[in-house]
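Morning. Coffee machine broken again, so started the prediction first thing and wrote up yesterday's gels while waiting. Chain of 349 residues, entered below exactly as on the submission form.
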Amino acid sequence: MPSETMRAMWCERPQQLELRQVPIHAVGDDDVLVKVAYTAICPWDVRAYSGLASAVAFPRILGHEVVGTVARVGKNVKHLELDQPVAPDMIIKCGTCKACRSGRANRCLRPTFLQYGGGYADYVCVPQRNVHTLHPSTSLKAAALMEPLACVLRGQDMLRLSPGEVELVVGLGPIGLMHMQVARAFGARVIASDPIESRLEKARSLGADWTINPNETDLSQFIKSVTDSWGVDAIALTVGSARMVEEVVRYLAPGGRLDIFAGIYPKDLVHLDPNQIHYGEWNITGSADSTPENMHRALTLIEAGEVKTEALVSHILPLEQLAQGFDLVKNRTGHKIMIEVNGEPTPQG
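Came back before lunch.
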């Protein structure tokens, strides 16, 4: 490693980013230093940068959708080689609390967030248990989306799809497009709904059975027509709106399941008729974050080509243009925005 400092997009406070040289992380005995190739922008990053996430501490280095290669390992790390491609899980779960020990590590009671070790920097350092290895042929750009796909996979598991069922995906940003692909991988047929034509086009190219612009076509009537008035068996709601929860729940078939995937900010209340839930036998749930097992399964779907995450990437910007990337996400321009930190590794030999 030529230098013991690295580039980092330092966020001193909300709305203030600057490129700094900061010390490279010290590598503990059980740690892995990862040279970052790409870090994708999550809407959470934009919310934190905008000052809308009150629990986020500053200063910090943002970025958690990371992929790269092994740059250095601690003395207890025996199964990884230098330059090996990997995708790190950037949230460290304690592994011992009730949540972790009951299959809900996504709700870990004592998580560690890498405040100064985010992915908008040349290197990140994580414990070896947080490192997911990639097949040498796996696209780094595709694998950078392991973390959001893991969250999507957890939400789709909540919906307990059976082959041949119909799922409605509301909102076709990158998350919605992943929901759509996972549902199809589970054997469901998918109605994909969004008012933006470019997103509908992307959904069609990725295999949606039906696409609909709800501003132009009555979604309720459309669902009745394609399901013989039965309704949809499942809904993935990727839009953070309490009013949207109230609207879409009426599209559920008897025994239907709704996953409220998106957080709703500012906080709001949902008003539902409990008799509809009672007689309809509806299951209304939420899902948040992911577990290490979700990460592993997400990477398997990516490597098998069942979910085409790289196809969601519309913009790749250099590290220095991170603020512009945040603006693209905020303005819903394109699909997935990715930051090229060090890019593809140089072939050896």
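The CA atoms of residues 249 and 258 lie 7 Å apart. Going to sketch it on the whiteboard this afternoon.
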